[in-house]
Amino acid sequence: MSAADIEAIAAQWLERRDGEGWSDAQSAEFEAWLAQNHAHRAAYWRLKAAWSQAERLVALKSASPERSAPATPRSRMRPLMFRAAAAFALVAMVGIAAKIYFAEPAPRLYTTAVGERKTLTLGDGSQIELNTDTRLRIASGNTRKVWLDRGEAFFQIKHDEAHPFFVIAGEHRVVDLGTKFLIRQDSARTEVALMEGSARFESTIARTKPAILEPGDIAYATADTVSVTKAPEHTLANALGWRHGVIIFDRTTLAEAVSEMNRYNVKQIVILDPAVARLTIHGRFPSNDTNAIVNVAQDIFGLRVEKRGKEILISR
Q1: Is the whole-model pTM more than 0.70?
Q2: What's the mean pLDDT in 73-98?
Q3: The dihedral of CA 213, 216, 222, 227: what is its sign?
Q4: Which of 306, 302, 301 is closest to 267 using CA atoms?
Q5: Hey, what domains does the chain have and what are their CATH numbers?
Q6: Least crowded by CB within 10 Å, which of 95, 191, 261, 284?
Q7: Has residue 22 got a pLDDT over 80?
């Protein structure tokens, strides 16, 4: 839903609340709409403030000695107030955008190609290691803030209580409390694994409270849910295998192994048989070598392998 659509719905709620016949059921529906997304709350209160200002301006105009016309009923003033409110809201948004544009330098952008890794060292000594096909932005100036737009990164942060370090991934935020942690971000979910220290995991999802992560905790967040589980130490160690150029599988289905291997290689493996996809493998594999998986498929499982362009097809 676009910002304009949200503003329009917020205006409808504002008019309904100001009208007659407001019921408990409508109130519950309104509160649920506000809780769905922080953008809903921001749009409503921005419009509410603009409307209040518009009401004051209309009242002053009606009381002006320059005009002797009778007072206009409140219901007839609403269209004018809506236009004034919309104008005030637009001016406010333009003003804020201009302030941000002119006051804050653009973040520095860092990316990695498929199969590439990169290590960044920040001015305070903190390090960020980028995995394959990753896009990350770092705020300019003294602000300790980064945005992980996609991909995966390992953070080793120098803690500074007076200047917290923030990582924003989708609708979620990780606040460093003296930490080593891994974040993986894609279109479906955000995954945060804490290796050392502690961190606060925050989300804009309604009714979600911040969670303090401890070593071994993994937070999983989608568009609708947030959960935190405890993982064995070897699971966390395996998740960082890419830092050394390897992928570690532990009784992993062939489908999951292929999906992970495909992240690191332009040549993609495709499994054609659902039964083959459920086979499990175990071991360490070079992340940039699709033949390692292909050899297991042929030599261990006796599967058929066919190379076709940039795809490697596996079947019975």
Answers
A1: no
A2: 54
A3: negative
A4: 306
A5: 3-103 (no CATH), 108-236 (2.60.120.1440), 245-315 (3.55.50.30)
A6: 95
A7: no
pLDDT for res 273: 94
CA distance 168 to 153: 12
CB atoms within 10 A of CB 211: 18
Give the three-class secondary structure for 291. helix
DSSP state of 301: T
Q: What is the DSSP string of 29-42?
A: HHHHHHHH-HHHHH
User: How many whole angstroms separate alpha carbon 127 and alpha carbon 49?
Assistant: 43
User: With DSSP H G I counted as helix, E B as strand and the rest as coil, what are the percentages for the chain, rounded to 5?
Assistant: 40, 30, 30
CB 282 within 8 A of CB 250: yes
Q: CA-CA distance, 10 to 16, in Å (whole number)? A: 10
**3 state DSSP class of 184:** strand
Distance CA 305, CA 271 (A): 10
CA 279 distance to own-chain centroid: 33
Q: What is the DSSP letter of 200?
A: E
First CA to last CA across the chain, in angstroms? 45
Determine the Cα–Cα distance for residues 86 and 250; give it in Å rounded to an integer. 57
In the numeric block, which tokens belong to residue 180?
């080593």
